[in-house]
Write a structure and sequence with these properties.
Helix content: 25-40%
CATH architecture of the largest domain: 3-Layer(aba) Sandwich
Strand order of the largest sheet: 4-12-11-10-7-5-6
Number of strands: 17
Structural class: alpha/beta
Largest sheet: 7 strands, mixed
Number of helices: 13
CATH class of the largest domain: Alpha Beta
Strand content: 15-25%
Distance between the termini: 42 Å
CATH superfamily of the largest domain: Type I PLP-dependent aspartate aminotransferase-like (Major domain)
CATH topology of the largest domain: Aspartate Aminotransferase, domain 2
Length: about 400
């Protein structure tokens, strides 16, 4: 049996018709399949491969750490050099400064779970408020935050006391009360189609949280690590989060998530009960080594500035009425098409012509643009030229 047949036979499928691309090599922004066909990667594994593929600094960091040791014990008892170095470097960029404390996890969903537990433990409250059409992961608590009927109905009952408000709805801010433990927001909404919030509304949300003693949890899983023109997207809006959630690009291509908070807040995990939140593989030494190399590469090369430059190139070169609007910021853009059917045809034609893009869970009529932050102007212009050609074909 060939690899595709074995893939379909033995790997659990999460959609009826998987794309089934068999990639043999990836370098920079280009993927190569078994037939030698190349694809420009405009989605970065859903905002994971922000340094592109095959970054030499990250690979060398992985090799160096693998030669020293792999798993020992990671949840806060052993002093592991890769964890300490990563946490120390990350603290340089966090709003908690010398009081920054990091808890490492395996993934974004697990980091969201940790943030929920920490907010419950610290506040003594049990109500959580998220934004309608937000996406925070697919584990049970994360799914309870999103609660989109299509994706959640078959898994009910969800967790109680999880509510939703609408982004930019001023009246909904009155739903925040002294019963609320935390408000959880994506700084830029991911699966809603890369939507930005009104900065004044975010300011009012922050003020309401402060007034009611509510923790503000900022989900930077998809929008963080330089994708929106600053290292963290919340820096664009002068927010002061109590808990920051990281994953995806944070791991430099390796599985890693984290929550960051002030040390006074994070210490709640250490008592009542002891081992208040633990994880076997969270903060794996090899993942932390890769993440440190990635963080250093992003900051030293200021890749977040390229994100803004390439945003301007994309907007300048999208030149067909088939494209209705562009939302998002930096290299986190959603391009609206006339409808879902045409959008899916567009994505299929992109793959045929050597461009890998995608749609959104809650905005199936939009094209996802989230390429590696190293993408060049020439590569962007090439992809946008093909976009315009496909748009012309579909409306001919």
């Amino acid at each position: 049996m060939n690899l595709k047949k074995l893939f379909l036979q033995h790997l659990a499928q999460t959609s009826p018709s998987p794309i089934s691309l068999e990639i043999t090599h990836a370098e920079g922004c280009v993927l190569t399949d078994t037939n030698g066909k190349t694809y420009f990667d405009l989605i970065s594994g859903i905002s994971v491969s922000s340094l592109g593929h095959g970054n030499k600094k990250v690979i060398q960091a992985i090799k160096n750490q693998a030669e020293k040791y792999l798993h020992l014990m990671v949840f806060g008892e052993f002093i592991l050099s890769p964890q300490v170095k990563l946490a120390t470097k990350l603290a340089e960029y966090l709003p908690f400064e010398e009081n920054s404390s990091i808890f490492f996890t395996n993934s974004g969903s697990e980091a969201i779970e940790a943030a929920i537990k920490l907010a419950k433990r610290a506040s003594g409250r049990s109500e959580f408020i998220a934004l309608k059409n937000s996406y925070h992961g697919s584990t049970h608590a994360a799914l309870s935050l999103s609660a989109d009927p299509y994706f959640s109905d078959f898994y009910r009952p969800l967790l109680p006391n999880f509510k939703q408000i609408n982004s930019n709805n001023w009246e909904d801010l009155e739903k925040l009360t002294t019963k609320t433990a935390a408000v959880i927001i994506e700084t830029i909404m991911g699966e809603a189609g890369y939507l930005c919030h009104d900065p004044e509304w975010l300011c009012a949300l922050q003020k309401k949280c402060t007034e009611k003693g509510i923790l503000l949890i900022v989900d930077e899983i998809q929008c963080g690590m330089g994708r929106t023109g600053t290292l963290f997207a919340f820096e664009n809006y002068n927010l002061k989060p109590d808990i920051i959630v990281l994953a995806k690009a944070f791991g430099g291509g390796m599985p890693l998530g984290a929550i960051a908070a002030h040390k006074n807040l994070m210490q709640h995990f250490a008592s009542k009960p002891i081992l208040g939140n633990i994880t076997t593989f969270g903060g794996h030494p090899v993942s932390c080594a890769a993440a440190l190399a990635s963080l250093e590469f992003i900051t030293e090369n200021k890749l977040y500035l390229n994100a803004i430059e390439m945003e301007n190139v994309i907007k300048k070169n999208i030149a067909h009425p088939f494209f209705k609007s562009i939302t998002g910021k930096g290299l986190m853009l959603g391009i609206e098409t006339p409808n879902t059917e045409l959008n899916f045809k567009f994505i299929d034609m992109c793959i045929q012509k050597g461009i890998l893009t995608d749609w959104f869970l809650y905005a199936s009529n939009k094209i996802r643009i989230a390429p590696p932050l190293i993408i060049t102007q020439k590569e962007v212009e090439h992809c946008m030229h093909i976009f315009n050609d496909i748009a012309h074909e579909l409306q001919a």
